[in-house]
């Protein structure tokens, strides 16, 4: 059944109410037409519950805007949703990526995910390209997709909104990787499912790394908001040498601050019996939260990003294929994923709105049942990076 406005409706009943389901829910194509966003194609999804989000076709089909009943979920930075033609991937010593950094979700990869690095590339057998110079978080997030379809799909009396596309990261004498992305949400629900496949279409043995930079902003993020996660161990903190200097711990969020320097943590997460890892940011005052559920076998690592600078206020949930140690360490530790022609890796995730106090309590109970996270805001990082197995 389709649940709309507090009623469970059959397809017949839903279609009898209006000439088109779009009066309540749907997915439609748009083009932005001003400023740095001019020319970007996007898809707007509305589920009929008050959940609305947009998908940037021309930026890897990442999710940009996201709001629920008029309350923002996703983060908006000063950079805006910049058109990829304006992007300078090699600019500012590799930090040019920051000028395209905004929205609920930015995909990082497909062969590099963290800070700038230069790594050897003997696999490409091309002398002039003896190394690859990677800018921050890789290339994929600013590459336009080829949209292969979008619309409504009825399954009996249930209706699903969906979109699919392919994003190609390729070059001569280098990588040729494809991201196949499907985004789907059921009408009457608050759960966005993201199904990704990364495929090596080339004929070189190619490294692969993958990460989602999922950014939650105000009002979900405000002073007192809580980070809920099945944290078995706080592994690492970039600011460990001045751990308490900014008075911002991992668990309870502060108000925006002047002169705040970003903080990044890595946590070792537990998983439920099905291998799923739920992580949430919740605002008890509003009775509103946002939860990301991933698979431990697909994303064995998880970072937490804190940017509490005034005017840029955000917290990031970052599931990752690799430790925060970086590209060189992934190779040295034999934890890099290597894809031969036709090899692929799958990533299946769910983004959920927690619309009220009851949903927050249920999410917290689910998370706590997996692992009781440290109760203090400043647990000592262990420095124990669990080996990642099963890599080809």
> What do the pLDDT scores average to?
97
> Which CATH top level class fits?
Mainly Beta
Overall shape: it is: globular
> Total domains, how many?
1
Distance, first to last CA = 43 Å
- Helix-strand topology string: EEHEEEEEEEEEEEEEEEEEEEEHEEH
Beta-strand percent range: 35-45%
CATH architecture name:
Distorted Sandwich
Number of strands: 24
Uncertain regions spanning at least 5 consecutive residues: none
Characterize the biggest β-sheet: 8 strands, antiparallel
Estimate the helix proportion, in percent.
under 10%
Number of helices: 3
Strand order of the largest sheet: 11-12-13-14-24-20-19-16
Category from helices, strands and their pairing: mainly beta
CATH domain fold name: Beta-galactosidase, Chain A, domain 5
By oligomeric state, this entry counts as single chain
Task: Explain what the structure shows.
By secondary structure, this protein is mainly beta. It has one domain (2-370): Distorted Sandwich (Beta-galactosidase, Chain A, domain 5). The chain contains 3 helices and 24 strands. The protein has helices at 11-16, 327-332, 357-370; strands spanning 2-4, 7-9, 26-31, 41-46, 51-56, 62-68, 71-72, 105-110, 117-120, 131-134, 146-155, 158-170, 176-186, 191-200, 206-216, 226-228, 231-237, 263-269, 276-283, 288-295, 301-307, 314-320, 337-339, 344-354. The strands form 5 sheets. The protein has an 8-stranded antiparallel beta sheet with strand order 11-12-13-14-24-20-19-16. The longest helix has 14 residues, at 357-370. It is globular.
